[in-house]
Amino acid sequence: MKKQFVTLAVATLLVGTAFAQANDTLAKVKAAGSITMGVRDSSGALSYTLGDGKYVGYHVEICQRIIANVEKAVGKKLEVKYTPVTSQNRIPLVENGTVDIECGSTTNNEARQKQVAFAFTTYVEEVRIAVRANSGITSIAQLNGKNVATTTGTTSVQLLRKNERATGVDFKEVFGKDHADSFLLLESGRADAFVMDGQILAGNIANSKAPADFKQVGEVLNVEPIAIMFRKDDPAFKKLADDTIAGMAKSGELAKLYDKWFVQAIPPKNIKLSMPASDANKDAWKNLNDKPVEAYAKK
Prior knowledge:
Blueprint: H1 2-22, H2 25-32, E1 34-39, E2 42-43, E3 47-51, E4 54-56, H3 58-74, E5 79-84, H4 90-95, E6 101-102, H5 110-113, E7 116-118, E8 123-132, E9 147-151, H6 156-162, E10 172-176, H7 179-187, E11 193-197, H8 198-206, E12 214-226, E13 229-231, H9 235-251, H10 253-262, E14 265-266, E15 271-272, H11 279-286, H12 293-297
Parallel strand pairs: 1-5, 1-6, 9-10, 9-11
Antiparallel strand pairs: 2-3, 3-4, 7-13, 8-11, 8-12, 14-15
Helix pairs in contact: 2-3, 3-9
């Protein structure tokens, strides 16, 4: 009986330790000797692939700064593993510990805050509509009877349907598994429009075979805070991430990094997105916070 009790106690201790470590990213990565970054294949200048397992972008670089500080905190060099995620699986992969820090294009909203945590907002996005330049489409009203592409697991078409200008507009949703797939629906003519974050649209247009064939049109559907994501209930890791971003904002590095990816020429085609920082972005860097999109809607 005593042996069974000891065995049960040890098992309980091990489960408790594993549970605690699941919400203690610093302890988890120190023990593993590695940290896993969730990245996107085609999230505009925030996070995208150059092929051969190489990922670049504004949020990728911010995450690299955070990881450098993680290494200082745990006192050792860590192997950085890159795991491609999609809009559909990014939150589950963070929740279950597969991904330690997600560095893509995730909107911070109240529903997601119940599942994961977000660092200070580093990018404020405008949701727009992309169409073929010769389509004649210039507004939401002209989407009536059209096929509209969206990426599975995103909120963009929901925002379109809620827009007051969409009243009485009947369109059909067609789904891409990721942003590149959604843009391909537009590029191939299977969709008449693609609704998504403006910089993701700009990135896909810039890297398309014929950038001049596409344009962004119509009304801004929404303004959204985009942030780096990690597990909930891990105050030490959140503080480290937030402190890193705060330091970058104070030194001006955040603004310089933004300029590098959104104003200057970027790889692989050395095309400029020509998207200077908006007032909303500048305000987010000046008044750092992790407020969800619902707080922006109340302004």
